[in-house]
Amino acid sequence: MTTKPNIFSLATKELSQDGFFTWLLQWADNDHSKHNQQLNETAKDFVRLLLGKSTDFQITKVKAGRQWNNIDIWAEINDDIFIAIEDKTNTGEHSEQLERYKQIVQEHYKNKRNNLFFVYLKTGNESIATINEIIKKGYTVIDRKAVLEILNSCKSKNEILIEFRENLNLIESQTNSFNKLENIISNWRAAEGFYLKLQEMILPEWSDWRYVANQMGGFLGFWYHWQGTNDIGEIYIQIENAFEYGIKLVIKIADWEPSTETLYELLDEIKPYAEKNGISIVKPDKYRAGATSTLAIIQNAFTVDSNGHLDLDQFVATLKKLEQTLDEYCTDK
Length: 333
Known about the structure:
It is built from 11 helices and 11 strands. By secondary structure, it is an alpha+beta fold. The chain has a 6-stranded antiparallel sheet. The chain has a 5-stranded mixed sheet with strand order 1-2-3-4-5, with helices on both faces. Helix 6 (about 145-150) crosses helix 7 and helix 7 packs across helix 9. The model has no long low-confidence stretch (mean pLDDT about 90).
């Protein structure tokens, strides 16, 4: 079954998304209710979402635009509200841009508008660790699920809104398809969904994930549970999803004096702890001593049933055994 063409699955640049959200904000102005009342109400609900306001908050005047002082989207609401929006699809913030935008707005609107709102709007997937850092910078994070809750309730037949909504729903569906291991190693969004689920199941402040470039083509990595030793460096847990080249759970070492001999010695030392905790670890095909190196690979970490469904509870149990292994080894060390 083929799906009909969708402009937003083709126009994937952030500027295209900027255009949609600016367009939607402009629809929230009272004057546009006569053109399409349902779209006007949905736009107002979107503004309330950005402001964290309840459904009884009145919106009368809205002026919105793009790329003011490099701020993706801006909106003046009623007589005393300004919203600065950093709009992201799959990329993240960089170069302290959020701090700069906040300062620009505060200086420009001093004694002009007293209610300033700063929003980080992300329709792609992002690590919980990254989101927490953005919140610390004074931004409200609005994610895809929150946007979809507004758009999915809209009864308007407007084709622009429908196409954008369909594309976002597709991204959400793909992200949630991580129940099958095949999806995780073949679909980038399913892999991200898997990592997001793991962050929910373990302590998210311990973990992070993102793309890692290397000479082999890179991988989507997930890492957590750093443990320091007195005389070696830091060891930690990492998942490496190289997609068509496979996925593996490994023990990594960093902040150390690189040495192949040390890797062999550490593997021999850690193996008894792993065996005691019911997991089997082996060396990679070839040791490479670098700034960070793979110390060991955990065997049979990803178990599936006859339908290819990943046993997520079993995988988390393996992670807990691996945590215990590293804890015990480092304590004795």
